[in-house]
């Protein structure tokens, strides 16, 4: 039937049929080529982590996406649509702005605050994925799990840290850890380059040299935002623990025990850690 | 053991139990592969088909699964083109079902045609005057589309997502889904129609021969309509079965209602047109061939009860239940299952019953019992479907809202921030 086949004769039906068939085939091949090209370009531009977070954030329940200004009571209800990156949020600028990042001079004499037994020094900045950022005198920042996550996870069985020289992006994967059969990634609170790995997963984990001239911390929680956020996170945790057949619950006003993950049944640990650390 | 491959929060049975449950299906698939080997190596003499009875179990299955698999293109078109967001909850499952149905159809067609080493002849030396050429081209293209649509579902696996290449590829594939959905709808529309169009050239089989508009016999449109009508029903039935087996809630009520409603309305249109088509056949087409229409129903067991069942019991009745706003949830699945059975009955009538009936004066009523190789190949395809779907359900996010729906209702409620906690803001 095809023109290159012996004894072929053109007929209108050939034209219609072949045009349609090859148009479809051409469209399919073009689509695939376009997809592959876009994929290669995205990989070269290093946007994989941004894509991962965009998809993960989309899959999070609304209860996990409350805006920081809802937490502080500045608005009754506001769901974040920016992936917890207030740097790109026009709405954030309209609220009374939070103070700038604590100055390095303050380091060494940190004021401390206990929120339901969680040690949350006020000289640190906090990311919604339960990491803290502490600016150091040499311009780097120390990144680690906050008290909430440390108590929730306890001592992980395995930790996968990025080597020095790795680039981190805000809301990208900072490191991964495994606890029993559960594995979860920890979101990076800053853009920058890893300069050092910490030794203790319950202490500081990474030292990072922020990208740009100085640390842009507009997306990080601080001061008066920390307490309502921790309380909301506790509520989320209570809600998660009270789901399903586990029967585990926290009495109102109580605080999670140390290494709570070990007390959570294996079947639910992965789900709870994932949801609390924003990896649905 | 395979915990890190499972979707987070998607609780599944232990791997050992899962494998034990799949073992009989794997055995059946092995038997199917063996019979396929016999058929392809020794020829079609392994079947009970002959030059007179050329449509057997496989063609019936082909037409059946292609109709049932229409849920993939139809759901995709509704979601991506008509923006019915409710269907996002089931689109992945629809794609997997479509992939299983169409790949099964291609395998069975390959067995039916035989000569696997010359399979490429279909594409290189096609007969442009044959409806089946269009069917072959469309099914091949659409299987390719379905494979591309299935790919991002596979890449969505938790472990695979950790590989940046797969993550980005999945993301980029999602961007072209609306175009793929449009192509899928176009291809499905034509090959479903062309399968029906076959009966416009079957002048030698007056029981199935139909006339229509220009090139297209009435069955061209009826096949499209019936497939589009039962595709959503099949999705409903499979989701219900999987939900019962897994003990998980998979489909939100709004998606279930939408699928049922669409299926019901389309089925109503189909039944109306099928009724009209039957009347035309009774009053004009069959008499024009010199035959009394009810003569065809004189051969038992294919009495008029088949016609009644096809149009009323398996057509009108489920159509009314599915389309009714007052239908209660528990009736929807039986009605959807009945609708699926109806389209299978229609395909059976158009193939097996059509060939059983005599057409010439010296012909007799023929009976056909498939050989064990045919049955084994059919069973193998069934097992293939169960295996692919089971593995997909275990490791891939087939139902977007499974986790949310299965949660304890207590957790569904929003927990308000307590007053005393507001007080502490700003400490």
Structure, described:
Chain B: Pfam families: NrfD. Chain B: Its main location: membrane. The complex is a heterodimer of chains A (280) and B (427). Chain A is α+β, with helices and mostly antiparallel strands. Chain A has 2 domains: 7-41; 48-230, RNA polymerase II/Efflux pump adaptor protein, barrel-sandwich hybrid domain (OB fold (Dihydrolipoamide Acetyltransferase, E2P), Beta Barrel). Helices cover 34% and strands 17% of the residues of chain A. Chain A contains 8 helices and 11 strands. Chain A has helices at residues 12-45, 48-59, 68-71, 90-94, 147-153, 226-242, 260-263, 266-276, and strands spanning 114-115, 118-119, 125-127, 131-135, 141-145, 158-160, 167-168, 173-179, 182-187, 192-197, 204-210. In chain A, the strands form 3 sheets. Chain A has a 6-stranded antiparallel β-sheet with strand order 3-4-5-11-10-7. A 3-stranded antiparallel β-sheet of chain A has the order 6-8-9. In chain A, a hairpin with a 6-residue loop joins strand 10 (192-197) and strand 11. The longest helix of chain A is centred in the N-terminal third of the chain and has 34 residues, at 12-45. Mean pLDDT of chain A is 84; it is low at 98-110. With 427 residues, chain B is mostly helical. Chain B has one domain: Formate dehydrogenase/DMSO reductase fold (Up-down Bundle). Chain B contains 16 helices and 2 strands. Chain B has helices at residues 15-42, 57-68, 70-81, 91-113, 121-124, 131-155, 164-175, 177-197, 218-246, 253-288, 304-323, 329-356, 372-395, 402-406, 409-412, 419-423, and strands at 212-213, 216-217. Chain B has a two-stranded antiparallel ribbon with strand order 1-2. In chain B, strand 1 and strand 2 (216-217) form a beta hairpin. In chain B, helix 2 packs antiparallel against helix 12 and helix 3 crosses helix 8 (177-197). Chain B is globular and about 70 Å long. The model of chain B is unreliable at 408-427 (pLDDT under 50).
């Amino acid at each position: 039937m095809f023109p290159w086949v012996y004894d072929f004769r053109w007929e209108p039906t050939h034209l219609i049929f072949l045009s349609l068939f090859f148009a479809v085939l051409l469209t399919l091949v073009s689509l695939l080529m376009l997809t592959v090209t876009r994929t290669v370009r995205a990989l070269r531009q290093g946007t994989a982590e941004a894509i991962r977070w965009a998809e993960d954030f989309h899959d999070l329940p609304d209860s996990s996406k409350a805006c920081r200004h809802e937490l502080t009571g500045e608005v009754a209800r506001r769901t974040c649509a920016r992936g917890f990156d207030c740097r790109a949020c026009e709405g954030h600028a309209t609220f009374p702005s939070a103070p700038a990042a604590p100055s390095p001079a303050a380091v060494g004499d940190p004021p401390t605050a206990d929120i339901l037994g969680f040690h949350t020094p006020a000289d640190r900045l906090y990311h919604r994925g339960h990491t803290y950022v502490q600016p150091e005198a040499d311009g780097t920042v120390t990144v680690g799990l906050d008290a909430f996550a440390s108590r929730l996870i306890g001592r992980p069985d395995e930790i996968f840290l990025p080597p020095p020289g790795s680039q981190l992006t805000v809301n990208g994967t900072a490191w991964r850890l495994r606890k029993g059969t559960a594995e979860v990634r920890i979101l990076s609170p800053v853009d920058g380059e890893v300069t050092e790995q910490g030794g203790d997963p319950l202490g500081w984990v990474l030292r990072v040299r922020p990208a740009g001239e100085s640390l842009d911390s507009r997306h990080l929680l601080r001061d008066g935002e920390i307490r309502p956020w921790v309380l909301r996170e506790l509520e989320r945790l209570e809600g998660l623990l009270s789901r399903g057949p586990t029967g585990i619950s926290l009495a109102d006003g109580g605080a999670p025990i140390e290494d709570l993950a070990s007390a959570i049944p294996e079947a639910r640990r992965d789900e709870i850690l994932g949801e609390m650390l924003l990896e649905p | 053991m395979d915990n890190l491959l499972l979707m987070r929060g998607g609780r599944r049975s232990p791997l050992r139990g899962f494998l034990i449950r799949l073992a009989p299906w794997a055995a059946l698939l092995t038997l199917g592969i063996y019979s396929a080997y016999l058929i392809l190596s020794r020829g079609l003499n392994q079947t009970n088909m002959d030059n007179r009875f050329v449509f057997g179990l496989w063609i019936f299955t082909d037409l059946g699964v292609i109709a049932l698999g229409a849920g993939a293109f139809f759901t995709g078109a509704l979601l991506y083109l008509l923006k019915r967001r409710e269907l996002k909850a089931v689109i992945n499952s629809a794609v997997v079902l479509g992939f299983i149905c169409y790949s099964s159809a291609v395998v069975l067609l390959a067995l039916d045609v035989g000569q696997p080493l010359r399979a490429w002849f279909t594409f290189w030396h096609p007969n442009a005057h044959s409806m089946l050429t269009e069917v072959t081209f469309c099914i091949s293209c659409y299987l390719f589309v379905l494979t591309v649509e299935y790919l991002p579902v596979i890449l969505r696996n938790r472990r695979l997502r950790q590989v940046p290449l797969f993550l980005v590829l999945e993301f980029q594939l999602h961007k072209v889904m609306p175009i793929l959905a449009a192509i899928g709808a176009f291809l499905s529309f034509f090959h479903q129609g062309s399968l029906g169009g076959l009966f416009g050239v079957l002048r030698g089989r007056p029981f199935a021969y139909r006339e229509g508009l220009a090139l297209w016999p009435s069955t061209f449109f009826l096949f499209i309509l019936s497939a589009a009508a039962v595709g959503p029903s099949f999705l409903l039935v499979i989701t219900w079965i999987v939900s019962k087996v897994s003990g998980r809630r998979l489909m939100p009520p709004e998606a279930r209602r939408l699928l049922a409603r669409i299926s019901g309305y389309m089925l109503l249109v189909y039944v109306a047109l099928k009724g009209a088509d039957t009347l035309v056949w009774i009053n004009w087409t069959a008499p024009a061939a010199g035959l009394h229409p009810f003569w065809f129903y004189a051969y038992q067991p294919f009495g008029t009860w088949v016609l009644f069942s096809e149009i009323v019991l398996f057509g009108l009745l489920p159509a009314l239940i599915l389309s009714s706003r007052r239908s209660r949830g528990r009736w929807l699945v039986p009605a959807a299952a009945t609708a699926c059975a109806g389209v299978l009955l229609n395909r059976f009538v158009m193939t097996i019953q059509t060939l059983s009936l005599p057409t010439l004066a010296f012909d007799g009523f023929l009976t056909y019992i498939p050989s064990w190789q045919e049955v084994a190949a059919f069973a193998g395809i069934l097992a293939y479907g169960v295996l692919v779907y089971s593995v997909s359900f275990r490791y891939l996010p087939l139902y977007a809202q499974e986790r949310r729906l299965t949660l304890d209702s207590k957790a569904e409620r929003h927990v308000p921030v307590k007053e005393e906690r507001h007080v502490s803001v700003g400490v």
